[in-house]
Amino acid sequence: MPGPRDEDLESRIEKIVADQESTRVEYGKTLAQLGKENPDIVVLDADLSGSTQTRYFAKAFPERFFNMGIAEQDLMGTAAGLALGGKIPFASTFAMFATGRAWEQIRQTIAYGNLNVKIVASHGGVSVGEDGGSHQAVEDLALMRILPNMVVLVPADGPETRAMTRWAAAYQGPVYLRTGRMPLPVIHDEPCLFELGRGSILRQGGDVTLVGLGVMVPACLEAAQLLAEEGIAARVVNLSCLKPLDWELLVACARETGALVTAEEHMVTGALGSAVSEVLAEHFPVPLVRIGLRDTFGISGKPERLLKHFGLTAADVAAAARQVLARK
Amino acid sequence: MKTAKTAKPPAAPDPSRLQEIARLVRLDIIEMLYRAGSGHLGGSLSATDILVALFFAEMRARPGDPCWPQRDRFILSKGHGAPALYAVLARLGFFPRAELASLRQFGSILQGHPDSGCTPGVEIPTGSLGQGLSIANGLALATRLNRLPSRIFVLLGDGEIQEGQIWEAAMSAAHYRLDNLTAIVDRNRLQIDGRTADVMNLEPLARKWQAFGWQTLETNGHDFPGLLAALKTCRASRGRPKVIIAHTVKGKGVSIFEDQAKYHGVVPNEEEYRQALKELGA
């Protein structure tokens, strides 16, 4: 059943083209602001503060910034110790090294000890670009989602990043927050409110639900526009809180739209696609198509080229929607 | 930044009194492990005198208030030495001694490896080797930022320092001049698969720590005057992190267990248990 022309969506897409913010930069700036407000916030990095953008905090509060050098296991262990000593540590490096190199350190002390460490890792996904497969973390969300006590957040834009960073500082417990290198369109109005364990519906629709994470959220919104022109009313959900998961929202979408597409800049295994599959299979099975990397590593290239290569564009999401609708 | 004043240490401890406490702690360890049916015997016995010196003569703590903010902090990085730590904490009154009988059992407050979520007096979960020195560094940094007089102590196994993360942390401690931190190496020269010299040589160990910028002391890990003197030196010195390489004997205190790799993760059988009780003067 074709939906009405969504003028609100169209003006939002116009705004999307005009405003672009990088989630890593918004993290860095918010962190510096938080540092001013709370003397217990400390920041650690592993020789990448120019990339992770902890440099803003480092410049403002050098006595509370600890560069651990190229030593990510030591970074996480030291962050754990600082939390034990009553500080609120934000530990940053690239997603690959934070969650890969130091996975066991995160598991054994931060997660197992339920310590108040905020791991904010940049360069998640293939949009890392030219550095290539070694630096493109396409497993990080799976590695963090599997840990008990870990909150896993993937902000979709600048306002959401600011809200989540601020929330993380106040929350008692381990948090993993993935930021990206690419500037992203602004989707949320200010003030953006974040609620733990809640996903949000960005666009209503009854034919199919497109569930996105991070850079794939604007792609889902664009795909919804493309599908609307074909008379398909797509609902768009931003599941930026990957853990704890808003499974009730997913079940409602399954019940109300009957078909889902998931889209993430990550392997389809272990993160969004898997999480949604688990919920549907246990609670409300409906046809599902997952968009993401399929058992492959990243490669060098410009971010836009890579997103196209790995099937992570709005056109790909729209194609997946048509595919899943055919199975309804 | 002004350095916080170091808290006054307890009154001069009596080595013979500490020796007696150590004997009782060893008896507790043997009892605990025999009853539990599993656990780490050799490394618990080699660490006993170090732990007794630390907890009964050096560290400021309040057993009735395990979260006292000004307490000195101890991290058992060689987490498998848990039985020794538990026995010491029990004797100090952090929890009832009767709990020792429940080691490793389902529902026990005494887990197989230290778990801060379960046991009063345990600061952080450990067990996976090589991680405790980084944690100790973080704690030392927080303590300094908070301008607290607390001192941080961490016990490392010698096999454990084959882990690369230990050396990352050693670099950091020197880089950040963490002089409120004292590490102790339980140098019993053995690991599961044999002598450390044969499995993965650690020597020259003292020179390695010195090269990493640590004030390095060596002492007999079973001699209380020596341990106390080394700790006193560490207490007084400034500007660098300190390491005490404590030369120990794995399984120390019971002749049939001493200096053997076999008893790393093996508990006494009935005959060995009776022999141990006899030798420890039960």
Task: Please provide a written account of the structure.
The complex is a heterodimer of chains A (328) and B (282). Chain A is of the alpha/beta class and 328 residues long. Chain A folds into two domains: 7-19 and 193-325, 3-Layer(aba) Sandwich (Rossmann fold); 21-185, 3-Layer(aba) Sandwich (Rossmann fold), CATH 3.40.50. Chain A is built from 14 helices and 14 strands. Chain A has helices at 7-18, 23-37, 49-52, 55-60, 72-84, 95-101, 103-111, 140-145, 158-170, 216-229, 247-257, 272-283, 303-309, 314-325, and strands at 20-22, 41-45, 65-67, 88-92, 118-121, 151-153, 175-178, 183-185, 200-203, 208-212, 234-238, 241-243, 260-267, 288-293. In chain A, the strands form three sheets. In chain A, strands 3-2-4-5-7-6-12 form a seven-stranded mixed β-sheet, with helices on both faces. Chain A has a five-stranded mixed β-sheet with strand order 9-11-10-13-14, with helices on both faces. In chain A, strands 1-8 form a two-stranded antiparallel ribbon. In chain A, helix 2 (23-37) runs parallel beside helix 9 and helix 11 (247-257) crosses helix 12 (272-283). By secondary structure, chain B is an alpha/beta fold. Chain B has a single domain (15-279), classed as Thiamin diphosphate (ThDP)-binding fold, Pyr/PP domains (Rossmann fold). In chain B, helix 8 (224-236) links the parallel strand 6 and strand 7. In chain B, helix 1 crosses helix 3 and helix 4 (132-145) packs parallel to helix 5 (164-175). The model of chain B is unreliable at 1-8 (pLDDT under 50).
